[in-house]
Amino acid sequence: VITAYGEGGRGGPADQDIGGGGAGSGGGILLEATTLTLGGWVTANGGSGGEGSGYSGYQGAHGATGAATSANAAGYALGSCGGDGAPGGARYVGAQAGGDAQCWLQNKMVGGGGGGGGVGRIRFNASTSCALNASWRLSPAPTGNRTGCSL
Known about the structure:
Order of helices and strands: EEEEEEEE
Largest sheet: 3 strands, parallel
Number of helices: 0
Structural class: mainly beta
Helix content: under 10%
Number of strands: 8
Radius of gyration: 19 Å
Strand order of the largest sheet: 1-3-7
Shape: rod-shaped
Strand content: 15-25%
């Protein structure tokens, strides 16, 4: 397993009516060799955004780190009235915007959810040949400099 995932956003602090933090994007992975023959997991997915803070001492949930699979990191919602944190980007899904606050409290809005982190980048460079095994799970789809290095 090789991963460069984005970190999840911080949940809004309790009783401060603050939005959740935006998540980190996936990183960059570069593999270079004379010949590349690969079988396993390589991912660079974005994290999910944090949930906005809500009422009565509720802190928003922290977002999740990017998944080490081809799935995106799910957004979080504890039901504290704050906006939901958004899912991060992955192979087939772009990062999403955080959710709006779910209710009004004492004539003010509680915090909205943080946005998900964008998907990163994977690149394979081989000077002679490149082969991706069927067992490999890649997210996002890689780019490469030789036939067989990209999908």
